[in-house]
Write a structure and sequence with these properties.
Layout: E1 14-20, H1 28-39, E2 43-49, H2 55-64, E3 69-72, H3 77-81, E4 85-86, H4 89-94, E5 99-101, E6 107-109, H5 112-117, E7 127-131, H6 135-146, E8 150-154, H7 158-168, E9 174-176, E10 187-190, E11 213-216, H8 225-232, E12 237-239, H9 240-256, H10 262-268
Parallel strand pairs: 1-2, 1-3, 4-6, 7-8, 7-10, 8-9, 10-11, 11-12
Antiparallel strand pairs: 3-5, 5-6
Helix pairs in contact: 1-10
This protein binds NADP nicotinamide-adenine-dinucleotide phosphate.
């Protein structure tokens, strides 16, 4: 992975990247590079780690170098939104963007909301327990509420959960929890990072209600600790890579106007080429 300052104007083709910190674990470069190859588009999709105080300089530099756009990941979705003109209700209402298109203006959109909903789009709405209150949790909360789910929200920093619940109460039934109880949840959504094998999930897996499906937004080839446990325990599971593919496909379509080759993108990150 090279530094964003090493990108130059001399490089050609369709240039794209994901920015974040940390970003080395992102599967987006693998997935989007496979998509560009399949489409026969000459170009590249890189990952750049960025320090918080460098965010604006990094975006200016990449725009100057001729990048078409960037994806934005942890923890910059909200700070980058503040630097962009927002397009679409998902970006405007969540105040988070995961996709930026450079041009005369920097335009930010949020494909996380549609990406999150895609794997559960046919499920009847019910009660969801959502863990986390960062950018990914905002997308999930907005997606769930606007599709009729009721949401209970828990976050390590309680004030963030309370603030999110207050802000999103106009979209539906959402409450912040003091402890992450999930007795009646039909769906448990984890929107916190899963670093390695460290267990940061605040509920003991074994206590999760048997009827609750498990959706882990964090992802890893081979599954996260949570999804591996859930599969073994016979739970209905949504792998975060499902969301990754759809948000990435929508971003690629927004940047290029081409139809994203979803089966190739899925296969590139270890998912079966067709959705199950
Ligand atoms: N599958 C996909 O397509 C997709 C899309 C977006 C994001 N994601 C994944 O979702 C995760 C969250 O991303 P984000 O953009 O929401 O990040 P973010 O804005 O930085 O938010 C991080 C969230 O995780 C919580 N957290 C961090 N470390 C924790 C720990 N040790 N224990 C408990 N909670 C902890 C934070 O709680 P505090 O408020 O207390 O700090 C916050 O709620 C990342 O793993 C990201 O890769 C996946």
């Amino acid at each position: 992975m090279r530094a964003w300052r090493d990108a130059t104007r001399e490089e050609s083709g369709l240039r794209l990247a994901v920015i974040g910190k940390p970003v080395a674990q992102s599967l987006s470069p693998k997935m989007q590079s496979a998509a560009l190859r399949e489409l026969g588009v000459a170009g590249s999709y890189e990952a750049f780690e960025v320090e918080p105080e460098e965010l604006r300089d990094c975006l200016s530099h990449l725009a100057d170098c001729g990048f078409r756009g960037v994806n934005v990941t942890i923890p910059y979705k909200s700070p980058v939104a503040a630097l962009c003109e927002l397009e679409g209700s998902e970006a405007i209402e969540t105040g988070c963007v995961n996709t930026v298109r450079f041009g005369e203006k920097w335009v930010g959109s949020n494909t996380d909301v549609a990406g999150f909903l895609h794997p559960i789009r046919t499920w009847p709405p019910g009660e969801a327990l959502l863990i986390g209150a960062g950018g990914a949790a905002e997308a999930a909360a907005y997606a769930l509420l606007t599709s009729g789910w009721s949401v209970s929200l828990w976050n390590r920093t309680a004030e963030r959960a309370e603030e999110l619940a207050r802000r999103f109460s106009r979209f539906g039934s959402i409450q912040a929890l003091v402890t992450p109880a999930e007795a009646s949840a039909d769906l448990v959504v984890s929107a916190i990072p899963a670093p390695g094998e460290e267990n940061v999930f605040p509920v003991r897996f074994e206590t999760l209600s048997r009827s609750a499906a498990i959706y882990d937004l964090a992802y890893a080839e081979g599954g996260t600790r949570l999804t591996r446990w859930a599969i073994e325990a016979g739970r209905r599971v949504v792998d975060g890579r499902e969301m990754l593919v759809e948000q990435g496909a929508l971003a690629l379509e927004w940047w290029t106007g081409l139809t994203a080759p979803r089966p190739v993108m899925r296969a590139a990150i270890g998912l079966p080429p067709q959705e199950i």
